[in-house]
Specification:
- There is one protein chain.
- By secondary structure, the protein is an alpha+beta fold.
- It has a single domain (about 5-155), classed as STM4215-like (2-Layer Sandwich).
- It has helices spanning about 5-20, 75-90, and strands at about 30, 40-50, 65-75, 100-105, 105-110, 115, 120-130, 135-140, 145-155.
- Helix 1 crosses helix 2 (about 75-90).
- The mean pLDDT is about 95.
Length: about 160
């Protein structure tokens, strides 16, 4: 895996979640960090944090990331609702955590716009919810409600 694989995968995953949840990437949902100039009144950020490694067997390494889903807004109800939209997008049509989900590859181009990844698509091998369902966790320094949940994801090129 290249060093850029995890950030590019998370961007690709954010785009796929936004599409599945009916959210707008770059307004309602962001990968890595939100941009105040474009963020909507309720916004969600997918952030990678330290977690377990799924590197187990020689020659069989797959990418893995622990992801915090951080949703913020001025009212708690929309924050919780949007957190659940993201959560539901990570479930398959039988309400199980997604496995073998192919998501279109995305990268940021030189201007910072989201573009198709010439390296191809990604496969989400498995999603494992770490903290359960979304919940309100408090308020931030701007008095916005914060909602969160987290999951581990194992991935590879499709």
């Amino acid at each position: 895996m290249a060093a850029s694989d995890v950030p590019n995968f998370v961007l690709s995953l954010a785009a796929a979640i936004a599409a599945a949840a009916g959210l707008t990437l770059g307004r309602d949902l962001f990968a890595h960090q939100a941009y105040d100039k474009t963020a909507g009144p309720v916004f969600t950020v997918l952030r990678v944090y330290g977690g377990p490694s799924f590197a187990t067997f020689a020659g069989n390494r797959r990418g893995s990331a622990s992801v915090q889903v951080d949703t913020r807004g001025l009212r708690s109800e929309p924050v919780l609702a949007q957190g659940y939209q993201v959560y539901e997008a990570l479930l398959d049509d039988q309400d199980r955590p997604r496995m073998h989900w192919v998501v279109p590859g995305k990268v940021l181009d030189d201007s910072g716009a989201v573009a198709d990844d010439v390296g191809g698509d990604w496969e989400v091998r498995a999603v494992r919810f770490v903290s359960g369902v979304p919940g309100i966790t408090g308020r931030d320094e701007d008095k916005r409600y914060q909602g969160a949940f987290s999951f581990d994801v194992e991935f590879d090129r499709a």
